[in-house]
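User: Teach me something about this protein's shape.
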Amino acid sequence: MSRALAHGDVFRAVADPTRRAILDRLRGGPAAVNALAADFALSRPAVSKHLRVLRGARLVVEHPVGRERLYELQPAALQQVAGWIEGYRSFWHVSLGNLKRHLESQRVSPTQRESDDR
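Assistant: First, the predicted structure itself:
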């Protein structure tokens, strides 16, 4: 994958726990880099690098306000991730149903236990 495509990859962006935490923080409203850095045990440049990846994936937008830049969540790009995850919903539903049926078939009734003990 080319470097340009990698930077625009929503899946790559949300794969990092710090970037997911930044997205969670931005659900509460726009924030400046300094405010975000204060919420995390990261330097301002480290937060800026994470924001650059999130911007490249179109998960956040940057708004200049005076000398600061506010970052705002743009969750529409997460629809791609949600769509991918949704494909697994039926898989897990079927798998868990199969597990339930298997476990129920392995259950021994009290009358069977008594006859087995004899």
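Now, about its shape. The chain has two domains: 3-75, 77-117. The two ends are 67 Å apart (CA to CA). If you'd like, I can walk through any region in more detail.
User: That's plenty for now, thanks!
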